[in-house]
Design brief:
Elements lengths: L11 E6 L6 H11 L4 E7 L10 H19 L2 E7 L3 H7 L4 E6 L2 H17 L4 E6 L9 H9 L10 H12 L1
Parallel strand pairs: 1-2, 1-4, 2-3, 4-5
């Protein structure tokens, strides 16, 4: 575990996802996780299998632009780092001792429970911590945001203005 300048262990966590696009729900989890940690690394997964709307580089840029205010507000470091490795290997590479995952509904829990078990078996020194989505964000999923936007629906309450503009430009372009 990394140490602060005072010799105390630093709490470094990762919040992984594809963030295609980053939503208000993601940003809510990032802000809440930031209060629990000394440093948060937002890991943007390559995950080409999901047929992303944005390239890996674009997703890293968009997430980075949105998290600056959160980092400033919490007086802490939040980094955005792309990755294409096993999540546990990525966690170790950034010195993380915690994986932060957001839960929206019971359907998320089944998948996340299995992943947490697998990750614990591979790396018992890295804890998985679940944060429940805030009530206003429980139903927001990137996949649904893209679908609503592609069908001409209004996504302004699901994503920040910069992300809205990027999604609409990509869909229209």
């Amino acid at each position: 575990m990394a140490e602060t300048s005072h010799g105390n262990p630093r709490r470094i966590g990762i919040y992984p996802g594809t963030f295609d696009p980053v939503t208000n729900g993601h940003l809510d989890v990032i802000a809440r996780a930031a209060r629990l940690l000394d440093k948060l690394v937002v890991g943007v997964a390559i995950n080409t299998g999901k047929g992303p709307l944005f390239s890996l580089e674009e997703r890293v840029e968009l997430v980075t632009a949105e998290i600056n205010a959160i980092a400033d507000r919490n007086g802490m470091v939040i980094e955005v780092v792309p990755f294409k490795s096993l999540l546990i290997d990525f966690a170790r590479s950034v010195g993380a001792s915690m994986i932060v995952r957001g839960l929206r509904a019971v359907s998320d829990f089944d998948y996340e429970f299995q992943m947490a078990g697998m990750n614990y078996r591979m790396a018992p020194d890295i804890e998985t911590v679940f944060l429940m989505a805030s009530e206003t964000h429980q139903f927001i999923a990137s996949r649904l945001v893209k679908e609503v936007a592609m069908l001409g629906g209004d996504i302004t309450t699901f994503v920040p203005p910069r992300i809205y503009d990027a999604v609409m430009k990509r869909i229209r372009g």
